[in-house]
Amino acid sequence: MSAEFTFLTMTGFFLLGAIMIVQGGVGFMQSHLVLLDTNSKLAQTTIFALAAMMFVAAIGVHFTGSSNTAFLKGQMAQTSQCELESEAANPAARGGSSGVIGRQIVACMRNAGFDWVVEVPLCREAPVATNGYCYQSASWLNRAITGAQLAFN
């Protein structure tokens, strides 16, 4: 399953779940089954907002950590793939100081849709071409999701 299709599917399920929560919450509140027959609109709104926030948080955790959404994992796998291809193409340059393999890894990642970015804190620790954290997706969606995954990393 592609990352874009997964994103659209998860967004659809998220919206469906939000609609179901709204419909169910409104139905319960009209029947006074929530908040033990309180008529306080503030209390009802607070409980409803907390339930919605928990739902959004759960979907967010699933979306950013699911194995189906391999944004950060996919970026690391692509870096390893580029490293393998570069070393296979230049076996004599392994362990050398020519930098041929590093340049080819960066070029391979650029062709895969990733830009070299040294400003990322995890990249500053080891700014080498094989560090998957030194790349940023050219796609704004992938960049935003990878940023969210890195925030919880």
Question: Notable features of this structure?
Answer:
153 residues; mainly alpha; 2 domains
Spatially, the strands of the biggest sheet line up as: 1-2
How much of the sequence lies in strands comes to under 5%
Radius of gyration: 23 Å
SS-based class: mainly alpha
Fraction in helix? 55-70%
Structural write-up:
The structure is a single chain. By secondary structure, this protein is mainly alpha-helical. It folds into two domains: 3-65; 71-151, no CATH class. The chain is 65% helix and 4% strand. The protein contains six helices and two strands; from the N terminus they run H-H-H-H-E-H-E-H. Helix 1 (3-30) packs antiparallel against helix 2 and helix 3 (71-89) crosses helix 4. The longest helix has 28 residues, at 3-30. It is elongated, with a radius of gyration of 23 Å.
